[in-house]
Amino acid sequence: MNQKPSATVSGVDPLRTLDDSELDLADYLRDEAEPPPPPPPQGFAALTIGAVGVVYGDIGTSPLYAFREALRPVADDGLAAPEVLGLLSLLIWTLTLIVTVKYVLFLLRADNRGEGGVLALYTLARLAIGHRSLPVLSLAVAGAALFAGDAIITPAISVLSAVEGAGLILPDLAQWIVPVTLGILLALFLVQRRGTGAMSLAFGPITAVWFLTLGALGLWNIIANPGVLAAFSPGYALGFLMEHQTVAFLVLGAVFLAVTGAEALYADLGHFGRKPIITAWIALVMPALILNYLGQGALVLTDPAAIDDPFFRLVPESWLPALVLIATAATVIAAQAVISGAFSMTRAAIQLGLLPRMKISHTSYDQSGQIYIGAVNWLLLAGVVALVLSFRTSEALASAYGIAVTGTMVVTTLLAIVYITRSGKLSLPLTLILAAPILILELAFLTSNLTKIHDGGYVPLLLAALVMLAMLAWWRGSQQLLAHTHRQAIALDSFATSMLKSSAPVVPGTAFFLTPDPTIVPSALLHNLKHNRVLHDQNVLVTVETLRIPVADPDDRASYEVINPRFARLTLRFGFMETPNVTRAMAHARKAGLKFDVMASSFFLGKRRPVVTGPIGLDRLLDNIYALLSRFSADPSDFYHLPRNRVVELGERVAV
Question: Locate the K+ potassium transporter C-terminal domain: which residues (predicted)?
Fold first, then answer.
C-alpha cells in the first residue's frame, strides 16, 4: 500500500451558537450528579409474556405450513395411519431434541455476560482459544450470513402463509393474496423507524392468545381421534425413516420447518433472561405446538381431504375469518422479531469489525437493545418484496426456507463444541459424545434441505454467500489498512516530546484526534500540522475500544492518561452490543480527569479513501468490495455521535 494525502478539509466557524449536539454535550459535562436511576425492572411474569411474543413469535407460526409440507412427499399414493404417526413423531422429537435439549437446556447457559446469539458465542470461543482463529472466525461469519438469509425469507413466508388462509374464506379473492401480503410487509417495514416499544406491548398478549388457540384447536381434534397420541413413541419416527428411505430426506427438510426460529431463544437471551424464556417454552409454547401438530394429524387421519391445508381446516368454515385474522397478526409479529434480530446482529457485526459503520438510531430511552438501522431495514424490504414476487406462494418459499436455518444451527453447534472443549469445561471426547446426536440430526436436516437447491434453496445460499463475501472483504481490508498504518507509524511518545520544542504556532483549545491505535501519531494530526501549520494547546488522542462483552461497565467506560503538558490519551470503552456514543462518554472522561472547554474544542478525523491498484485476481476482487463498502460506510461523526459542526475531517487516499 501507499498513501497520498488530500487537502479535503471541512471545518467550522468558531463564532456561532451551540447546536443541539453541543448543548447535549454541555449538559452532560455540567451534570456532576449520578445518572438518573434506571426504570424499575419488569416482573418475572411480564418478562415471560414478553418472551412468548418476541422469542417464540417465529417458531409459533410453523404449524401454518410445517406439517402440510411434510405430508406432501408421501401423500401421492394416499396416506396410511403409520405414515401420519411417523411424521408426527418426527415433529415431536425434533422439537424435543433441537429446541428443548440443545437450546433450552444447554445453549441458554452458554451466555456472554447475559447475551446470546452466534456472534456472542463466537466471542466466547475466541476468548477460550486465546487468539483470533481464522476457521472460528469463518464459522461466525457463515452463521451471521446465513441468519441474514433467514431474516429475508421469514417475513415473506410467514405473512404469505397467513394471508393464503383468506383464500379459504373467499376463493375468488385468491388473486389478491400477493398484493395484500406486500401491503402488510410494506407497512411493517415503514413503521420500523418508530421503534418496537409500542408494538412490543401487544406482542406478548397477542402471541399468548395465538399459542392458546393452537393448543385448543389441537386438543379439540385430538379428542375426536385420541389414537394419534401414539406418535409420542419414537418408534414411529424410526419406522417411518426406515420404510420411506427414498423420500426421507425430502420429509426431513419439511419437518425441520417446525423448529425455524429456534435461534431466537439464544439470540434474545439478553432481552429477557434465561428463566423467563425457559418458563415460556415449557409452560406454554412447547405444549401448544405439540398439541396443534397432533390435532392436525388427527384431522388428516379422520378426513384425508384436509391434507391440502390441515391447519386452517382445524376449524369449521364459520370460524375461518377469526383464525385468519389472528394468524395474520401472529405472522406479522414473527416477521417483526426477525427484523429486530437482524438489527441486533448487524450492530454486533459492526462492533466486531465484520461490517462497515452504519447509522444506528436508538428508538427507546431506556432499552438499549431497541435500535433501528435504516440501511438494513430497506435492504431487507427489497429482498422480501423480491421473494414474494418471485415465489408468490408459501409452498414455493418453503423449499428455500430450511437451508439458512439449518446452516445457522450447525454453525452454532460447532462453535459450542469449540467453546466447551477449549474452555476446559469438558474433554473433547465427552463433548463429541454428547453433541453427536444433535449434530448428526442437524446435518441430516441440512443435507435434506440441500436437495431443494434447484427448487429455490439457492436463494438463501446466494444471499448468505454475498453477505459472507462482504464481511470477509471488510475484515480483510480493515486488517490490511491497520497493518499499513503500523508500517508507516511514528511513535507518539517521542513525537510528543519533540513537539514541546517545536516552533509550530500553538493555538488555544483542545483538539481530539480519533485513532484506533493510541501509541502512534494519527494521520489527521500530521496533516493538521502540514496543512494548517498549527498545534493546539491540548491534544487528546481518543481511542474507542470494542470489548468482548455485550455492555461495558460504567466505571470502566473511560480512562485518561497524560503524556506531557500538551499531549494525552483518552480511551472510551463500549460493549459489542452497544452503540458508541462519544458525546455521552465525555461525562465519564471528565470524571477520569480530562478538563476541556466545549466551545474551544474540535474533533479531528482522518478519513481514508481506498484506491484499488493491485493485479487482477481474487485479492483485487476483495479489495474492490472493500473500497465499495467504504464508500457506503456511515460518517464517523454520526456513528460515534460526535458533536455536529465541531468536526474537522482531513482526508487521504490509500492504495490497496
Answer: 508-655
